[in-house]
Amino acid sequence: MPYLVECLASVERQTLDPARMEVIAVDDGSADGTGECLEEFAARAAMPVTVIRQENSGGPSGPRNVGLAKATGRYVFFLDADDRLGDEALERMVAMADKNGTDVVLGKVEGINRKPPTSMWGRTLDRTDVFSSNIKFTLSAQKLFRRALLERHDMRFDESLWTGEDALFTMEAYLRADGVSVVADYPCYYLVGREDGKHVTKSGSYTLRFDSARALMNLIADMVPAGPRRDTLMVRPFLVTLLPQFGPKFLKDDERIRQHKMELAAPLMAAHWNPEVARRLRVHERLRLHLVAVRRPELLPEVIEFVRAKKQADALLEKRGTRVYLAYPHFRSKPAGVPDWIYLAEPREARAVEGYREDAAGTFLRRAVRKVRRSLPTRGVKTAAA
Question: Which of 132, 135, 193, 327 suits a disulfide with 114, CB 3.0-4.6 Å?
Fold first, then answer.
């Protein structure tokens, strides 16, 4: 409350025939009148509504699992109580799934006092997958899922995770799905930022972020064989979950926390960081994670400050313009010892540099990272998911 009021109003405004809908509302031990509001909604709503009231579980996984166990429809959609639906959202998403036989449908997300994901809404896609689109960068639970897919694989939210549980669930669904659809031409979901700033994804200890990254990395490693497809997916937990722990907030951490973060990152870097993942990142992202991987925290602050100040790294063109090095801090510093290839821009980043010639540079970087990778010790196959 009071966000729930508008959330429920958005459900009542749905253009999908109420006879085709069921609402399962789980009151997870609220103490603000939510339960009574849900009961009133159930009494007046045109569609069947089941209200379940339980002791507080401490996180979203338990209530979602309770609701999922009660669901009987062909599809399920997880709607957070402080967000809201676009009026035609369910009708459009169900039609998209029915038309294409896809198991997951993403509806365009817009933000209200919050920044939504944007890179996957370029165009509506009848059928895609997690490898050939940017959907890996939206792993929240607010998607339409074919219930038969979830039941066939006994998919549930991991109740041991306090954050990132939706990323684990959604990535598994993407990987198991017989196709994914994207509705990009209509705002289906409004992500609402709470005025009190107490949104669940913004709270909790930094250690929870490492738990989340570990679980997602292990899931990807378990489900996708080693190679370019796995490397492509690994970008997401490194970039979205792990890297922010070594951004501006790292500058405010005391030495004890800095060391603890490095300790938590070490096994993740050893297991999943490699040159092929690295080259899929921008230079400053790759540089920070490299310093984490080689356990050089003392070199991080200068890089973080440089990036936070939005400084432009000097570009050094070599080999007749086919190689572009971006001279972020510690470039060619003997004491730092960071290899040159960390600073070598991929074509997508190098194109902004005047005088760059594209073809051979990308080939050179691929050769460089392959050479580095061959020099690394062979790792065992990971089988245990967090």
Answer: 193
